[in-house]
Amino acid sequence: MIFWRAFFTSFLPLFAVAVAAAAFAFSPQSRAEITLRGTGASFPYPIYTQWFRDFSDLHENVFISYEMTGSGAGIRDFIGETIDFAASDAAMDKAEISLVKRGAVLLPMTAGEVVLVYNLPGVDTLKLSREVYADIFRGKISHWDHRKIAAANPTAQLPDLDITVVRRSDASGTSYIFTGHLSSISTDFRKKVGQGRTPNWPSPDNFRKAPGNQGVAALVKQTPGAIGYVEYGFAKLVELPVAELQNRAGNFVAPGAESGSAALENVEFPDGKLPGSGAPNLVAWEWDPEGENAYPITSFTWLLLYAEQDDKKAAALRQLVSYMLSDEAQDQAEDLGYIPLPEEVREKVREASRFIR
């Protein structure tokens, strides 16, 4: 934990150096018989690296490295067959899956919440209505003492300060989740920005960009008046305050395991199989969840695996998935800012993992 805090609160130029210097390997490679290399989403990075470390402690013959390059880069590496596995919060669409020659198996391994972190000295609690946070991220509201922000925060001493909006600079699954939600609740946002890993963000002077969840968190932390979107685990690690967001039922809700679980309780996976591998389709979204206590921006995140593998790597990956689904692993989710998978979802993932061969 001390390492993470030091890492995230460093200046932004250090990020590229830190990530390039360490792909975060979790057992001495010299002792390993099997090497598994992955790239992709920063959204699940804190929990994945914890799980990979724990798994390698139990299986010293397996060397695992995972580099947080962003969901888009992870998918490109996966299609290009330059890695053994990838991770993405935006899953993969049918066109991308069709390009995977060895067949793709997409497994939701955990779930998390996209939160709005902010830097407002003297403001410990901030509530943002659906209209307000959509308008902030399409560039319509640009000052913290705006009357619509003040209306939801009557006791807060909102500063006379410009809003600095921090968004992702890379192809991002976190952006895909966030803009998917905003596009579902705001027609204007959908028309002017839209949903995507690289959405059509506005370009006014108050918009800035940073790579990865870690980059957004760091830039917000060092910029008074800033607001940005990250996975909840990153907000916890750097101890940034998060806004309470108004949900579909009209309630202001803080993120957490309980409100995140409430958001996902009605998610249903589609019928059908993934092309190429025949694995069950475990890609599902809840862009604007119902429920009095549901946190409004909650999503699964997926591990991307090849259906056809080297036999030893396939066996190691099946063991890894089994460990990640165990009570021992899933029980760590809440402390790290994630949502444990319900047992019925875990069982579906176990069944799908049999297609890794």
TrEMBL record:
It comes from Microbulbifer taiwanensis. Keywords: Phosphate transport, Signal, Transport. InterPro entries: ABC_phos-bd_PstS, PBP_domain, Phosphate-bind_PstS. The complex is composed of two ATP-binding proteins (PstB), two transmembrane proteins (PstC and PstA) and a solute-binding protein (PstS). This is Phosphate-binding protein PstS. Belongs to the PstS family. Residues 33-328 form the PBP domain. The keyword Chloroplast does not apply. Part of the ABC transporter complex PstSACB involved in phosphate import. Residues 1-32 form the signal peptide.
